[in-house]
Amino acid sequence: MVRITISDLNNLKEKKQKIVMLTAYNYPFAKIIDKTPTHIILVGDSLGMTSLGYDSTIPVTMEDMCSATSAVARGSASKLIVADMPFLSYQTSIETAVENAGRIMRAGAHAVKIEGAEHIPAIQAIINAGIPVMGHLGFTPQSVNKLGGFKVQGTTAEAVKILVQHAQILKEAGVFALVLEMVPAQAARELTTAIDIVTLGIGAGIHVDGQVLVTDDLIGLFDKFKPKFVKQYTNISKTIEEAITTFNSEVQENQFPNNKHSY
């Protein structure tokens, strides 16, 4: 099975074919996504909220990310695997940033994702070490406290201008793609037109090169809250609840195990 590469993403952009990126944090979900037309698996630090029960991505550690990345890598044979660098894994020093990016790559990722445009020297050093970097602009979850909560970014002409400047800086630094999160559709359109690298939107309208969603949101597994940009395609949480409730009933009524499930 041939694995998706960064070159493949660039070709899709040139052909104006949409790119799809979904999250996975474990082996079973990676196996499922690997059977779909999805191009990229993002091992997101969103696992802190969807899998570990935190209120934000900030508590997520390098150990969390490496463990999840390793599991996903074992489950996926055909997708480009991108893993988030968690909070404070790249902000403290260039040396620490390169070392941590290397740890994530050794765990099985093919690229790392870094939020914001404030750490260009670290990004350049990581790329110079042979590690591809995906950027992330707009709402950047690791800066939720600085931004004053989960708020749409790029809502004024000046803010859009700054976003475009940051995108150009990241492009010049060598990132191969940009995630644009929670920005108005017109702002995402302007930004995508301004740069010639892949843009992936999550709450950024249709005028981008592809779309990203957290898989747990898409399938209804995470129900703590639902952002406006999430479309829930099924409610797997309800299905699981019903299956477990039925199992409990069958145990109480001595219907399970029956002869078929006994030795």
Secondary-structure map with pairings?
Layout: H1 6-14, E1 19-23, H2 27-34, E2 40-43, H3 47-50, H4 62-75, E3 80-84, H5 94-107, E4 111-115, H6 120-128, E5 133-138, H7 144-147, H8 157-173, E6 177-181, H9 185-194, E7 198-202, E8 210-213, H10 215-218, H11 236-252
Parallel strand pairs: 1-2, 1-8, 2-3, 3-4, 4-5, 5-6, 6-7, 7-8
Helix pairs in contact: 2-4, 4-5, 5-6, 8-9
Summarize the structure in words:
The protein is an alpha/beta fold and 263 residues long. It folds into 2 domains: 6-232, Phosphoenolpyruvate-binding domains (TIM Barrel), CATH 3.20.20; 235-263. It is built from 11 helices and 8 strands. Strand 3, helix 5 (94-107) and strand 4 (111-115) form a beta-alpha-beta unit. The longest helix is centred in the middle third of the chain and has 17 residues, at 157-173. It starts with 5 loop residues before the first helix and ends in an 11-residue tail after the last helix.
How do you describe this structure in short?
With 263 residues, the protein is an alpha/beta fold.
What's the helical proportion of residues? 40-55%
* Strand arrangement in the largest pleated sheet: 1-2-3-4-5-6-7-8
Order of helices and strands: HEHEHHEHEHEHHEHEEHH
Strand content range: 5-15%
The chain-level structural class is alpha/beta
- Name of the CATH homologous superfamily of the largest domain: Phosphoenolpyruvate-binding domains
Report the mean per-residue pLDDT as an integer.
97
Distance between the amino and carboxyl termini: 39 Å
> Measured on Cα atoms, how large is the radius of gyration?
20 Å
**Number of H/I helices:** 11
CATH structural class of the largest domain: Alpha Beta
Count of β-strands: 8
In CATH, the architecture of the largest domain is Alpha-Beta Barrel
